[in-house]
Amino acid sequence: MKDKIAEKILLLIALSAILSLLLITFFIFQQGVPFVVRVGLGNFFSTIWSPNRGHFGILSMIIGSLLVTAGALAVGIPFGLACAIFLAEFSSKTIQKTLKPIIELLAGIPSVVYGFIGIVILVPFIRETFGGPGFSVLAASIILGIMILPTIVSISYDALSAVPATYREGSVALGATKWQTVRMVLIPAARSGIVAGIILGMGRAIGETMAVIMIAGNALKIPHSILDSVRTLTSTIALELGYAAGDHRAALFACGAFLFLIIIILNIIAIKVTKRR
Amino acid sequence: MVFLTCNQRRGGIIIAGSTSVQPFIEKVAEDFMEKHPEIKINVQGGGSTAGIQATFNKTCNIGSSSRNLKVSEKGLRVIVIAVDGIAVIVHKDNPIDNLDIEEIRGIFSGEIKNWKELGGKDKEVIPVTREEGSGTRASFEDMIMGEKAISDACLVQDSNGAVREIIASTAQGIGYISVGLVDEREKAVAIDGVEPNIANLITGKYQFSRPFLLLLLEEPIGEIKKFIDYVLSPEAQDILKHDGLIPAVEVHDD
Fold it and tell me: For chain B, which terminal residue's Cβ has fewer other Cβ atoms within 10 angstroms, N or C?
């Protein structure tokens, strides 16, 4: 009897989580979609964003979000993967036990702290070394790359560790060196897990807001180089929501709906990829 | 503040709107509550546009705005509590002390790209503006930009403080903030030879100023009237003056 009650309560709690997700989805789309229909896709996907003058083009922000995310992956994938391979294959148990929790701790640092470090150290460094305003695609990419490290490292590490020991033994028995084993046996075998880690990291990068607002400069122009300032979809929502009313507000919800779609698609890909074992 | 709002017996007075007005009205409200502990005042931000909307919707008792109302927003009672100048600021090491209005337009519209064109160092100009919807930005566009649009190449920050922070740390930067918030880490330039100081603002020589407004849907009564009267009293106006605003009573009408 007690078991039944506990079960029912847990079910209710589980359902409430799903319910809140449904409510959020419904609310965002209910606010955003009618607006896009009204102003038209042509306006919504143009490059001019000037809500007070009736221009609601989010193209430059989409490009901004994609650029910053790509930059974050360019930083995060090599470092994350190298780190995971080292931890899973080349390090001793003691090193694993110390390093892994430290890397995972990175995920617990609030994004505003990353942003602050970016402003104080990275932005002036970029400004003085490479020129430009410093608030740039490059700064945002580096900080986001560090922020997605824990996701990539821990999921890739788990995937690599899950490869059966017999694969390694077989490979070594065939005369492969350790590096050859990693490159030709383990990475292909753990591929789905590694890709899932990268996609989840990508989701985090595209959704990150605070750190990006602080270091990307938020200029609306489409950047011509990685030293130019950039505006992402999430930054626009956070920067302008406080002031927005009427169509401007609806346009921000439409941005949110668009982001939501991107992230759902990324997650579906991640789930599909992990299932294919 | 949260503690206070939880504790109030009735709704208390809710003031919402401009984030530029907010810090000043908070100070006055604190002072007021010390004298009238029975009246609770809750000051919220949200921006001028939101404050005007909230006054119409009655989601606040008093709205605040740092820009004049648009034609579509008429129908509210407007009380000018102070006037705030907008200063154009540059890094303190920037040799430029004076810009004319055309030069400022040129910088923010993206036509002037190098400080050399203005007689400064051979360095790229990095203009910093406020986000779409900000009252400070709206006033800056009205008073200085005129017909010209602010370039989308400008960096965008979402508060006076954030703009100030970037200018203080960026040698090539230029931005605009409330005169009352300029500190020693950056330099406010003179516009057309007129320095943005309190004296020039009071006499009207420095023209780039905007009103700080409180907004009401109807004739104030009771506690709300008491508060409005206090804001306009010499005592409260002194607090505002001390913080760099021009008291409403000293403004020249011309």
Answer: C
The answer to whether B211 touches B71, Cβ cutoff 8 Å, is: no
Q: Which residues of A touch B47 (CB under 8 A)?
A: 242-243
Please, is A149 exposed, middle or buried when counting C-beta atoms within 10 Å of its C-beta (0-12, 13-18, 19+)?
buried
What is this model's ipTM?
Answer: 0.80
- Chain A CB within 8 Å of residue B136 CB: no
Residues of A in contact with B19 (CB under 8 A): 242
Counting one residue from chain A and one from chain B, the pairs whose CB atoms sit within 8 A come to 77
- Give the Cα separation of B133 and B45 in Å (integer): 13
- Distance in angstroms (rounded) separating the CA atoms of residues A60 and A66: 10
Our CA-based measurement puts residue A227 at a distance from the nearest CA of chain B, in whole angstroms, of 13
Which helix (H) or strand (E) segment holds residue A159: the answer is helix A137-161
B112 in Cβ contact with B106 (< 8 Å): yes
Instruction: Return the closest-CA partner of residue A113 out of A210, A202, A233.
Output: A210
Residue B163's closest chain A neighbor by CA? A217
How far is it, in rounded angstroms, from Cα B199 to Cα B202? 5
Only one residue has tokens 């009204």, namely A38
Cα B24 to the center of its chain, rounded Å: 10
Backbone angles phi, psi at B209, to 5 degrees: -135, 160
B247 has pLDDT over 90: no
> How far is residue A93 from each of residues A97, A98, A164, measured CA to CA in Å?
6, 9, 18
B47 and A CB contact within 8 Å: yes
- Any idea what the Cα angle at residue A166 is, between residues A160 and A167, rounded to 5°? 55
Q: How far apart are CA B64 and CA B58, in angstroms?
A: 13
Residue ranges and CATH numbers for the domains of chain A are 59-251+267-275 (1.10.3720.10)
The SS3 call for residue B65 is: strand
Chain B residue nearest residue A47, CA to CA: B152
10 Å Cβ neighbour count for B254?
Answer: 4
Which chain A residues touch B131 with a CB distance below 8 Å?
218, 239-240, 243
Distance from CA of B170 to the nearest CA of A (A): 8
Question: How confident is the prediction along chain A (277 residues), in pLDDT tens digits per residue?
Answer: 788 899 999 999 999 999 999 999 999 999 999 999 999 999 999 999 988 788 899 999 999 999 999 999 999 999 999 999 999 999 999 999 999 999 989 989 999 999 999 999 999 999 989 988 899 999 999 999 999 999 999 999 999 999 999 999 999 999 999 999 999 999 999 998 999 999 999 999 999 999 999 999 999 999 999 999 999 999 999 988 877 778 888 999 999 999 999 989 988 888 888 776 5
Residue of A nearest to B110 (CA): A221
Structure token digits, residue B97 = 């002390």
Contact (CB, 8 A) for A85 and A222: no
